[in-house]
UniProtKB/TrEMBL annotation:
InterPro entries: ABC_transporter-like_ATP-bd (IPR003439), P-loop_NTPase (IPR027417). The lineage of its organism: Eukaryota, Fungi, Dikarya, Basidiomycota, Agaricomycotina. One of its GO terms (molecular function) is ATP hydrolysis activity. Keywords: Hydrolase, Transport. The keyword Transport applies. It comes from the Eukaryota. Residues 30-301, 316-573 form the ABC transporter domain. This is P-loop containing nucleoside triphosphate hydrolase protein. Belongs to the ABC transporter superfamily.
Length: 573
């Protein structure tokens, strides 16, 4: 098997069959079957997918497009053997004829960006560690992550401890493998980050690093779920071109998982369209003309007009704010004022400093304390320097939903949806107080305060819960949803609940970073509608961070302002 990178051909593994056979070989074979969860009886249970008839031939390029993230999650888990196919694909090839007689568990890999990777025990972990002193195991660099055998075993995190260890400090690769690694790193834009700690990488850079790691393990089939989410405009075509090259050379074969509103790459030839329990498969030009696809691919963007109040109170005031580590400058002389009632769209390439800027605004970054007020520079949050605002008070003034918050939020078995939403009033991570709506910050709550908080929780859950985005057959009432365990929700449902948490207390400032990642199309539509039609008041300021213009609930006609980070500098557009 060979791969073409950088104009050169590299052999990854010996070919297992002749080219003539490969041109007609079957990669995946599911002839007319229902798909169930293990333990569900055929007659008494509703299948996850019904009447699935899907065949993938060698040379075809497939994308799996889902109306909801849970559908793609189930579809890929079916391919990993985590769901039961009835009847099972026929022998001798089974589900993956092209692999027979090799083990699919060894040769099929999946990279999904909706799963929580850290603190799997359910506890909160301090995601602000990336900005200051970090534990020894968090100092592991991207290069060491790729080659864990170079690590001191005492500082290897659990997920890397199964890797073989060698006495050498440096990894010795064959000239061919070294050139392949160098070309992969170059084409994925990760070369200059190889010796940075993983924890210091941006969200987009981390996504590319995870894909690189998966490719380097040399699977025969790679399933990539939402690989474009969180990637900037500049890196998307580079990644897609690389995936196309890999797929053409079958090193590895690639199947993409896309959201319904994601553009389908030109090189994709076939699409599997998922909606509920129904799967429609076929050539791209036919599937993309399906009524269901066309009616949902464009989301309405009508909005209640919001006129920013130029005289509103200044919520955030940054003047010549600078963040640097030794000689590496991350933010360079940022000047930005955010007023009550304003809607901002923060833009910038992966690694441009967006996450760092948000950490300065939330007060999480240690250098937010050192931005001393002077004539030439200052950082004021709600009219005061960071050092004069107690952290609990600041957390109650800002509602946040970000990839870091999603990963860090505790998943305790007894924490319900209501409990999670209720922590949003005080900005805490543990439910407390009467009715689990908090105890208040700086002053105790009155009975009237508690009553308002309870009513507000009910309002937000009713507006953003399943009744707003689920269909009539699968929706559940708000009372039942309130009691569901947060840890048992799907990724999209968890993100929606954390959005409720960010909005419930009507904080003065709301920060929404990659807010729609992992959400179903219905959830996105319901949330956008809520944000446009009263979910955010004229006294609240909002900053939304996304690479996609159509993910911003408001348009220019609604007074949305834009700021773009370019190499650490802020440009007001």
């Amino acid at each position: 098997m060979a791969i073409l990178l950088g104009g050169r051909v590299f052999g990854l593994r010996p070919a297992h069959s002749f080219q003539r056979y490969l041109s007609s070989a079957t990669v995946i074979n599911i002839p007319k079957a229902d798909v169930y969860r293990f333990g569900d009886a055929n007659a008494a249970s509703t299948p996850v997918f019904r009447d699935l008839d899907w065949t993938v031939k060698e040379g075809e390029s497939w994308a799996v497009v889902g109306f909801g993230s849970h559908e793609k999650h189930d579809f890929f888990h079916m391919l990993l053997g985590n769901l039961r196919i009835s009847p099972h694909p026929p022998s001798p090839g089974g589900l993956f004829p092209f692999l027979f007689p090799r083990d699919p568990h060894v040769h099929v890999a999946v990279v999904s960006f909706g799963n929580r990777r850290r603190s799997s025990g359910g506890a909160f972990y301090d995601y602000t560690a990336r900005y200051g002193a970090v534990q020894e195991e968090d100092r592991i660099t991207l290069r060491q992550h790729m080659f864990p055998e170079t690590l001191n075993f005492d500082v290897v995190p659990p997920e890397l401890r199964d890797a073989p260890r060698e006495s050498q400090v440096q990894v010795k690769l064959s000239a061919e493998r070294q050139q392949l690694f160098d070309d992969l790193v170059e084409r994925m834009g990760l070369k200059k980050f190889l010796d940075l700690p993983l924890i210091a990488l941006s969200n987009g850079q981390t996504r590319r690093a995870r894909i690189l790691k998966a490719i380097w393990t040399q699977p025969e089939l790679l399933l990539l779920d939402e690989p474009l989410t969180g990637l900037d405009v500049q890196n998307r075509p580079n990644l897609l071109n690389l995936l196309h090259s890999l797929h053409q050379s079958r090193s590895p074969r690639v199947i993409l998982g896309l959201r319904i509103h994601d553009p389908v790459p030109d090189w994709i030839t076939h699409v599997a369209l998922l909606r509920g329990r129904k799967v429609v498969t076929g050539p791209k030009h036919i599937i993309l003309t399906e009524k269901a696809y066309r009616s949902n691919h464009v989301t309405a963007t009508t909005a209640t007009q919001i006129v920013a109040n130029e005289t509103g109170a200044v919520v955030v005031d940054l003047k010549n704010v600078r963040v640097q580590y030794d000689h590496r400058v991350v933010l360079r002389d940022i000047n930005w004022k955010i007023r009550q009632g304003e809607r901002w769209h923060l833009q910038g390439e992966n690694g441009s400093g967006k996450t760092t800027l948000l950490s300065i605004i939330t007060g999480d970054h240690p250098q937010s304390y050192t931005q001393l007020a002077s004539r030439s520079s200052h950082l004021h949050l709600f009219g005061r320097p960071r050092s004069r605002i107690p952290t609990p008070h600041l957390q109650s003034l800002i509602g946040v939903l970000s990839p870091e918050m999603f990963d860090a939020f505790p998943r305790k078995s007894r924490m319900s949806v209501w409990d999670v939403v209720g922590t949003g009033f005080d900005g805490t991570f543990v439910p407390r107080g009467k009715h689990n709506v908090g105890t208040g910050v700086m002053q105790e709550l009155t009975e009237a305060d508690v009553k308002w908080r309870v009513t507000r929780c009910e309002e937000v859950i009713a507006a953003l819960g399943p009744g707003a985005w689920a269909d009539e057959n699968t929706g559940e009432d708000a009372a039942k949803f309130n009691d569901r365990a947060f840890v048992e929700l799907s990724v999209g449902e968890q993100r929606m609940v954390l959005l409720m948490r960010a909005l419930v207390g009507r904080p003065q400032l709301v920060l929404l970073d990659e807010v729609w990642s992992g959400m179903d199309e219905g959830m996105i539509s319901a949330a956008k509608k809520y944000l446009r039609e009263g979910g955010i008041t004229k006294d609240q300021a909002v900053v939304i961070i996304t690479h996609w213009q159509d993910e911003v609930p408001w348009g220019v006609q609604d007074g949305v302002k834009k700021i773009r980070l370019v190499k650490g500098q802020g440009i007001i557009l």
